[in-house]
Amino acid sequence: MHDFFFRRIFCAGALALCAVNAFAAELQSTKFEQEVLDDTALEQALSQSPAWLALLHINRGATMHSRGESYVDDPKFFLSADGQTDRLSELQATIRLLRPDGAIERCRFPARYRFLASELGWQGAEPFAHCADYLQWRNSIPSGRAVLVFPASYLNSPSSMFGHTLLRLDSSDAPDTVWQSWAVNFGAVTTEKDNSLLYVYRGLAGGYPGRFVIVPYVTKVQEYSHLENRDIWEYSLDLTDVERARMIDHLWELQEINFDYYFFDENCSFRLLELLDVARPGSGLIEGFRFAEVPVNTVRTLYDQSMVSERIYRPSKAVLLQADIDALTTQEQRLVKALLDDPAVASGDAFMAFSPQRRHLMARTAYKTLRLRERKHVRNEKVASTGFALLRVMSANAYEEEVEVAPPSPPESGHGTQMIGGGGGQLESSDFGELYYRFTYHDLIDNNRGFLKGAQIEGLDFRFRSTESDTLKLESADIIHIRSLAPRNRFIKPISWYVHGGLERAMAGDRKRLVRFVQGGAGASWRLGLMQPFALATVRLENNSVYSPLAEGGGGANIGALWYLEHAQINTSVEGLYFGNDEYRHRWKVDVNLPINRQNGIRFGWQRDGWRGDAENSVSVAWRHYFD
Amino acid sequence: MKKAIIAAALLGSSLGAHAEAPGGPGCGWGNMLFDGQSGLPMHLLATIVNGTSGNATFGMTTGTNGCSTSGSLSYSGKSLLAMNGVLEEVAMDMAAGQGEALTALSVSMGVPTADRAHFNAVMHDNFAVIFDSESVTAGEVADSIAAVMKKDQKLAQFI
């Protein structure tokens, strides 16, 4: 109903825009009374035009909050008292205040001024001559190219799989360095006093204002590429000079302006789409309903609108280090490790036996390792002196070329964010059918094209089962299931971990019951060719009405291995848990995923569940379809 | 005046205020080092704010990790060096004789493309002069770079 209503307004606005120029021409010759009438009609038409709706950030039905009104939650942004809800009144106030030469409000709203001036035929050689601050700012902002920057997921942080998007403004089409560029970022404005839990809650519930900020891009490179070790994907946007100028002018209008910030829909990615909609009004970028705007879908939308002209991959520091490590022989790797312990090794015979280029590469690998390892620690004399010594070794030995890193599959080539599926199987001698739905996003063996291997984040994952004797019943519901299996090597030793919480049918008391549980663990993982073994210590807390007083706690281990083959992904594992009430459980599993194409896959499973006194085996096959 | 402050904040820099020495205290070489935020809660937080870690969400205060960003508006060589992590990057590139950080530095000093290879070579040859100790600060490095360039026939004009 709402959707329909607003789409109609939207269409009316588009039609009206076509009539605007005709109105403007007529205005010259008509009588005063007629002019007033036409003015009103013209204003009405303008107030519905896509450009005006974009400039005011009117919700045209894309998200649920306050449809038909502006997303901006800040009186500073409106010139009319009811500007947030009344676009016509805001337009009239804007016309009234911006029209006079030398109007101070022009300095705050240059994009609105340019829009009205062009639609209403306002003349003026230098409309912003009196706006020194704006002009100074405007001249300092590069406008040669706009690039959508997508920092992808990073090792050991599955939550980063959702990604982030920001906009980069370059001085030219082919800048010598992007370090001189500016980053336009939309994020929640938080206060450092808030504790973690409150932060999460308010982030989800919309308790923080969101703002656009512009910072030197180099700070973002440092943050993402170095500090967080994220690969960065850059998508050059095919915008005209005029479109870029309009967007930058509008950014000025958004300085210090608060939006509501909602993690799911009105987030960084959605706001960037709105910004691009200002650049190219009526582009269709924010048409339709966009609940849960996942950043990668923003990238897909830009491709759909043919707005991407080039894609560049910028590997993280960890990826670059890995490339260096891979280029070393085992003997050289040992020397790197020795260098890290004591840089004086560099003057020893074993090290000096290598060519200067190899010595350079070894010292460089050691230095990069040190940087990666120490990136989150405070300064320490020993590290500083080791790092310094390694740099001297590098500079004393001839340069060895950086190893070229081949780009992995880009994030937009990955499977859809939601999944539905159906399947069936056999539990001991009885058959069952199953239905699946997962709201988000990726598990360890879903098609990993465009995703990080060894990382999983699932939210709201449901499994329903019907058996010969029973109708469809909830078999399990994962509220959250995050796994991070980060391989260790000679130089970097990350911890693998997981958290898992939800409901599942488990042996509780005398029979299977739906239990509520939270479970988590930590351990290690390694990469051995195509195989990635892991071992995790596990603790679990489980609640059901049969437990007295309330919950049962247990601990154990989860050991297994992942295989990433060319046409299949396999997860084999065994988990054993011992509970406080002297019960125990163990589960053996083999899951094989065969991707058919980007959005479809087949999954085979074998599982053996055991508990004190009994055990059962099941096999299953399922079709999984990804979408959105 | 208020507008000027807003403009400065929006640009992540402090327009008029150069009171703080480039680099600021605690921003020295080997400052490998930020007070990082890690662990599971921070991962979740990062997700909530769409991947921007706590400090960065303020946007305007890019220098909250101990490095001043004074003057970053003009991106002069000094202020670039004063940014978090950049000094280490520049040091590595100088030791290697090339790299993105070194290119950025030369661009910020106004060295044209044609002279960039020469700039890189001079910086590489003088690595030990410019980074003469492990406790050198961004300000000292900037001064040393200027001194080295002044002595070079081609590069002197860019100082």
Structural account:
The complex is a heterodimer of chains A (628) and B (159). Chain A is built from 16 helices and 20 strands. Chain A has 628 residues and is of the alpha+beta class. Chain A folds into 4 domains: 2-130, no CATH class; 145-314, no CATH class; 328-396, no CATH class; 416-627, Porin (Beta Barrel). In chain A, the strands form 2 sheets. In chain A, strands 8-9-10-11-13-14-15-16-17-18-19-20 form a 12-stranded antiparallel β-barrel. Chain A has a 7-stranded antiparallel sheet with strand order 6-4-3-2-1-5-7, sandwiched between helices. The relative contact order of chain A is 0.07. By secondary structure, chain B is an all-alpha fold. Chain B has one domain. Chain B contains 8 helices and no strands. Chain B has helices at residues 2-10, 40-48, 77-82, 86-96, 100-108, 116-125, 127-130, 138-151. In chain B, helix 4 (86-96) crosses helix 5. Chain B is globular, with a radius of gyration of 17 Å. Chain B starts with a helix and ends in an 8-residue tail after the last helix. Chains A and B meet through helix 6, strand 3, helix 7, strand 4 and helix 8 of A and helix 1, helix 2, helix 4 and helix 5 of B.
